[in-house]
Design goal:
This protein is of the alpha+beta class and 495 residues long. The chain is built from 18 helices and 19 strands. Strand 8 and strand 9 (205-207) form a beta hairpin. Helix 3 runs antiparallel to helix 5 (81-94) and helix 10 (262-274) packs across helix 12. The protein is globular.
Length: 495
């Protein structure tokens, strides 16, 4: 077995031996469902909504990451929160693992069923159940995606701005505390969720801010909403989310600007933030990124360290913002400003940025991508990113570096042949060094992708044993038998 894959998958509970646990994720025969359980699930959701065919199991056993597929023994498709509750009661009764599944766009193996069990596909629950235009909020079920919501809102003058790139399910975005290109202005999912409906492992249905409530703020009780935001399916099923909405800005202008060096590009970003310019997006792409984006999206941007910028507000405000940002950029040697004021040109620009993942894969057809995801304080960003790029430049792996640098978050995409142990070990080394470097500078091992399987080993260093123990106490309170997406997020305290 390749060492990196084994390490990632086995950073989990010590219930099974590490060798047994890794193989369990690959061999469904090691996790047979109890006799009669499929019949009980059929009673809960209907026979046609319980699937055990190999093709459907394979569709659910992986996400967009490189982690080895791990199938469940059945996939169920509930159509209501009551049906999710029945499924949870059934699995809890038989002590069978439950793995929530949305659109499968995660990047850390969060949907891999490393303990087997049942994949619970929530995409059939796809209603936008409540819209309060005057209150600037909306309530959605887990099958609703980001693009679907914004299309629904088009005529209202409102939008939901959190944009991770992929057309992810909104409840899935809650589960990973996703963010993306415009978190520098609007924050992450953690700042934009007002209430959640959650089904616990025993089938109880809870509303984290009270049923039907959607105030903009509250000091009542514990903040259960943010306990479940970022929990990655390990505490319960998110079956409904009430989200903040925002007005569509009067004017939007975007630009692409290149720089003579990595340091000058990142210094510009830091200086724009420190100057208090309310920029809505500021994205970094390195030379390899621009080369791949140009080829994949048929563009002709200058191949150099580059920032993609976007400004929003009134016409006068946007003009002032762009002038100030331009002055800062020019003081750092910027060149090749390309403005995109109309919607079509802006969409083309941001489509190219969002397609960077697929553009990177096209650099080496047939490869897999190990995607890193670290975040540091903005004051540490320049040194952290420069040191990372210097180390990557000395490696033999094909790679690109991109980042939501306005909030200190950046990613390296490392292209590997998963069957080549040398390449996997090199990706492991580079990814680990990035995480340790970020932690040493007061940052985090994951800014937005979540922990899943891939980042478990870094949590003990990031939080310390007492905090991990507190997290386990919380996990045990909600899920005493470790049935909700087991083997994810939390490190084994006894390893």
């Amino acid at each position: 077995m390749l060492s990196l894959m084994r390490k990632a998958v086995t950073s989990s509970l010590g219930v099974l031996s590490r060798r047994h646990l890794y193989l369990a994720g690959r061999d469904p025969s090691l996790h047979q469902l109890p006799d009669g359980m499929l019949d009980e699930l059929s009673e809960a959701v209907g026979t046609k909504n319980v699937i055990t065919s190999a093709s459907v199991l394979q569709q659910h056993d992986h996400d967009e990451s490189w982690h080895h597929p791990s199938p469940a023994q059945a996939v169920v498709y509930p159509h209501s929160v009551q049906e999710v509750s029945k499924v949870a009661k059934c699995c809890s009764k038989h002590h069978i693992a439950m793995v929530p599944y949305g659109t499968g766009t995660g990047l850390e193996g969060g949907v891999c069923a490393v303990h087997g069990g049942v994949h619970v596909n929530l995409t059939k629950m796809a209603e936008i159940s409540e819209l309060h235009v005057e209150d600037f909020d909306v309530t959605v079920q887990p099958g609703v995606t980001r693009k679907q919501l914004n299309e629904y809102l088009r005529a209202t003058g409102l939008h939901f701005p959190i944009d991770p790139g992929a057309d992810a399910s909104l409840c899935g975005m809650c589960a990973t505390s996703a963010s993306g290109t415009n978190a520098v202005r609007y924050g992450t999912m953690r700042e934009n969720v007002l209430n959640l409906e959650v089904v616990l492992c025993d089938g109880r249905i809870v509303h984290t801010a009270g049923k039907g409530r959607h105030p903009r703020k509250s000091s009542a009780g514990y903040n259960l909403t943010n306990v479940f935001v970022g929990s990655e399916g390990t505490l319960g099923f998110i079956t409904s989310a009430t989200l903040r909405l925002y007005g569509i800005p009067e004017a939007v202008r975007a630009a692409v600007v290149s720089f003579p060096s990595i340091r000058s590009a990142v210094d510009t970003c830091v200086q724009i933030i420190q100057a208090g310019i309310p920029i809505s997006r500021i994205e970094y792409l390195d030379e390899n990124s621009l080369r791949s984006v140009n080829s994949y999206s048929k563009l002709d941007y200058t191949v150099a360290p580059t920032l993609f910028l976007e400004f929003q507000g009134s016409d006068s405000a946007v003009t002032e913002q762009t002038e100030l940002a331009g002055e800062i950029s020019n003081s750092n040697g910027a060149s090749g400003y390309r403005w995109a004021a109309d919607t079509e040109e802006r969409n083309k620009l941001w489509a190219a940025r969002h397609n960077a993942f697929y553009a990177a894969l096209a650099l080496r057809p047939g490869c897999k991508t190990v995607i890193t995801d670290v975040c540091v304080p903005v004051s540490s960003l320049t040194n952290c990113l420069v040191e990372t790029q210097e180390e990557l430049a000395a490696s033999f792996l094909t790679h690109i570096v991109i980042g939501h640098v306005g909030d200190g978050n950046f990613h390296a995409m490392l292209m590997i042949d998963p069957d080549c142990e040398k390449e996997v070990e090199e990706a492991q080394r580079l990814s680990a060094n990035m995480a340790w470097r970020a932690l040493a500078q007061g940052g985090t091992c994951t800014g937005e992708h979540g922990v899943g399987l891939g980042k478990i080993d870094f949590l003990r260093k990031e939080f310390g044993t007492p905090t991990i123990q507190a997290m386990w106490a919380l996990k045990n309170a909600f899920d005493p038998y470790n049935l909700m997406n087991p083997g994810k997020v939390l490190p084994d305290l006894h390893a």
